[in-house]
Amino acid sequence: MAFVPFDRPVRAAFIGLGRIYDLNVLGYRGNPDVEVVALVDPDQQRLAQRQADWPDAATFSSAAELVASGIQVDAAEVLLPVPLHADGVVEMLGWGWHVNLQKPMCNDLLDAQRMLDAAKASGRVLRVMENYLFYEPLRRLKAVVESGEIGEVVGYHMKMVGSGNGGWHVPWSSFEWQLEQIGRGRGILVFDDGWHKLSTARWLFGPIKQVRSWIGTTSFGSGIDLDAPTMIAWEHACGVRGVWDITLAPDLYLRSDYYTNDERWEITGNTGFARVNRCTGRGIQQPSLEVYSDGEMRGYHALDDDWASSFRDSGRHWLRWLQTGEGPLLWSGEEAVEVLRFALAAYASSAADGIGVNPGQVV
Ligand SMILES: NC(=O)c1ccc[n+]([C@@H]2O[C@H](COP(=O)([O-])OP(=O)(O)OC[C@H]3O[C@@H](n4cnc5c(N)ncnc54)[C@H](O)[C@@H]3O)[C@@H](O)[C@H]2O)c1
Question: pLDDT value at position 83?
Fold first, then answer.
């Protein structure tokens, strides 16, 4: 069934109103492409708090109650804990809703296939949002590289330092399901945050043909085993190689309005380099993008480098897409499966002492 664009504002429901709602909501506020008709969360306090944003929306403890109410929904903004993604999304697609799902899509290929099959069977669109692809410094980085300003790309690296000191408050309830994920071998750094880094790699240089990795563990007791120190390296089908190092510095204070991640992307060309200095947190407080070429350093001082803006723009992109059906979804369900395969290849490689694994062949 071909997608038919809407010729009126989309009737949307938020499913899950936890920590990340605060940023996902930015794409919806003041947006004529959408009418928020319902809010769903079993937590009554959250429902009451978020209702202040949308006084005309109806509130429900479950998506099934919303369906039973008869209120018509076109699209769901799904902000559920990851262990609930697969069953929740299959159910919602079955009700005929289009779905914009927070990453990571799900934990394994079987669940991913169930979700793709459900989208196909219902003729509805499944998008797995990736806000990093809407972060202006990263978009500009891609444009600089594609312009040839740093010559031919010869390699790149990404860096992530996790810290628990600084940033916004994350309620313990938001960590509880992460612990469940850790127990299933889907750690918070490699799999949850890592989804973003692997996505940017796929977006920058295309399909990946081989992954090698060394995933470590740092234990904080009571099942809190964080998946660092870790190194992951890969080669794209185009021949470019990338590497990502993840380290933990639990007591490092990092100024941040959001999570305390110190992140970088640095692409080397044969005549220069281009580096994004920060993203979620305010690590290096130089211009968020710097480009070195032919003996000169250029700093981009006026980019919209507030991480929250990437959520706003990702959300607006989705809601506009529903009005036009044109252009890439960033990401489609199928593209998200490629990101999942990339992560699964990293796990398989690490389990086999770092051998090269083709993400296309993981099962
Ligand atoms: N893009 C990013 O950078 C980013 C950052 C943080 C989180 N996330 C993703 O967003 C999603 C949510 O994360 P979070 O940190 O907001 O989690 P959270 O635990 O803070 O919020 C989840 C919410 O879902 C509610 N919920 C639980 N079961 C429900 C159900 N059956 N129906 C409706 N609501 C239900 C909970 O009560 C809670 O309010 C996850 O997929 C996470 O990986 C993405």
Answer: 98
* Tens of pLDDT, residues 37-66: 999 999 999 999 999 999 999 999 999 999
Which residues, in sequence order, are CB contacts of 127 under 8 Å at separation 6+? 98, 99, 100, 101, 318, 321, 329, 330, 331, 332, 333
| Structure token pair of residue 272 | 């220069």
pTM: 0.98
Indicate if ligand 1 lies below 6 Å from the C-beta of 41. yes
Residue ID of nearest Cα to ligand 1 atom 40: 81
Q: What are phi and psi of 155, to 5 degrees?
A: 165, 170
Q: Coil, helix or strand for 126?
A: strand
- Kindly give the residue spans of alpha helices, DSSP state H, lying in 61-108: 63-69, 85-94
CA of 2 relative to ligand 1 center, distance in Å:
30
Q: Please, which pLDDT band fits residue 219 given cuts at 50, 70 and 90?
A: very high
Rounded to whole angstroms, the Cα distance separating 39 from 61 reads 9
Q: Are 274 and 266 in contact (CB under 8 A)?
A: yes
